[in-house]
Amino acid sequence: MTASAEARETALLAAQAAADKLATDVSIVDVSDRLAITDAFVLAAAPNERQVQAIVDEVEERLRRHGVKPVRREGVAEARWVLLDFVDVVVHVQHTEERAYYALERLWKDCPTIPFVDRAAPPAADGAGAPSGTLSADDVDPGSSDPVPLTPDPTADVPDEELVEDDLVESDPLQDPAGGPEATGR
Question: Which parts of the chain are beta strand (E)?
Fold first, then answer.
């Protein structure tokens, strides 16, 4: 038995919603032969709790617009591993560390996967599409020793804007609003 057409469609919608919010390692596992309670798992990861929550919110909103509502939500408060149960499809959005530790793909390795290709990802040079974060020879400047991706890494640290010394204001929170130390007893 394979996942129903409705479950496949729901899983693909959820996977695309997650990918649209920059989820990594998005995959769909058809667990219909192993579990009687659901047909598919959608697995996605994010590097921080805020992004986990953004992915969860987008998946819920996208599926609600298609008339699918979760019957159960777990882990939302911690946002380390959030589970959204849509009955035929269960969405797991995990912090990257939890995703690596629990390795759900390994647990369900005997189950077939449902192919998912991120529609928003730029196509590879061969047109087949490459997973996000991978580089090809075309992405590297031959004059540089460091490969640089053509698209920015959303998880990279971005330096703060340079501040001019005149923009900085020194303040002492113990001083009164008028600026004198009289209010603090110093």
Answer: 24-30, 40-46, 72-74, 81-85, 89-95
Q: How many domains are contained in the chain?
A: 1
Collapsing DSSP to helix, strand or coil, 66 comes out as coil
The pTM of the full predicted model, rounded to 2 decimals, is 0.65
Residue 11 inside a domain? The answer is yes
* Residue 148 belongs to some domain of the structure: no
Which of the residue ranges 46-50, 74-78, 83-87, 117-121 would you say has the lowest mean pLDDT? 117-121
Cβ neighbours, 10 Å, residue 27: 17
In a domain, 184, yes or no: no
Cβ contacts of residue 186 below 8 Å, gap of 6+?
174
Query: Which structure tokens are listed for 181?
Result: 């130390």
Mean pLDDT for the chain overall: 78
Query: Which tokens go with 139?
Result: 């992405």
What CATH number should be reported for the domain holding residue 28?
3.30.460.10
Domain that holds residue 62: 5-107
Q: For residue 92, report the phi and psi dihedrals to the nearest 5 degrees.
A: -110, 115
pLDDT digits (tens, 9 = 90+) for 109-152: 999 999 999 988 776 555 454 444 433 334 434 443 444 344 44
